[in-house]
Amino acid sequence: MKYLIAIFLFAAMLNTSVLVRAQIALTQTHSAPLGTALQESVVNLKLSGKKYMVYTHPQVKLYNLDLTLWKTITLPATVSGYSLTGGSGVAYVSENLFKIDNKVNVVAVYDKSGIQNRLVIDETGSLVFAFDSAFSITVYNVGVVNDSFVAITPYSGSSNTTKVYSLPGTIPCNICGNGIGLGLPVNDELNNSASIEAIPNPVSGDAKIYYTLPENTDAASIALVDLNGKVISTYKAYSNTPYIVISTSNLAPGIYYYTLQGGSFNSITKKLVVAK
Description:
This protein has 2 helices and 22 strands. It is mostly beta strands. The radius of gyration is 24 Å and the shape is globular.
């Protein structure tokens, strides 16, 4: 009998342990008044990685994946004659997509003279660009710098029109999560075998940019770009060479970006800080 009781108690302890490990715990609650937007998703930012996004009109809150608050962006009620609509969510939260800089951009619906438009607003509340439609917006990414585009399909009356705009930046990949709408699929297995890293960073003189290329890729290129999206210089990258050397002596102090790109993998972009 003692052995049966011992076995029963031991089994009960194991079961309790499983229940404790499997417990679901409430960590956060987000709410918004009825009739105003409440939206959440995981976004993948080009420079800062994955974040948990919560939009409760008019604020976009970005959390780290441990749910600590990373950044709060308050969309302006009015900007350049446009008024923020309360019932619509945000289409994109991104970095280095609609503008090449280190700011987070948000695409939201604004109204002007009774006509709705999708506006790109940066984290300071400044207007980056206004698309003349509030309807379908999809970003396509072909994997290299200055070769992404957004297709806008506005609806008016009984006719549809698609407008295609070129974009200065790219989004990370098709399966990473980036709000509503993603880029074209990429071969992540190939992409994961490509890498790039500048040393030292920050740099005041010469920097070595180390890189690896995917298997069966003989050559690629590395582009150095400033905050305005202007290509400063490009370099050839070969599979049998582990790094290139670039000089920053002629560059003004500030932030730049370097991108490894090739036809067989998705481009990789990282930040380079030039300090004098």
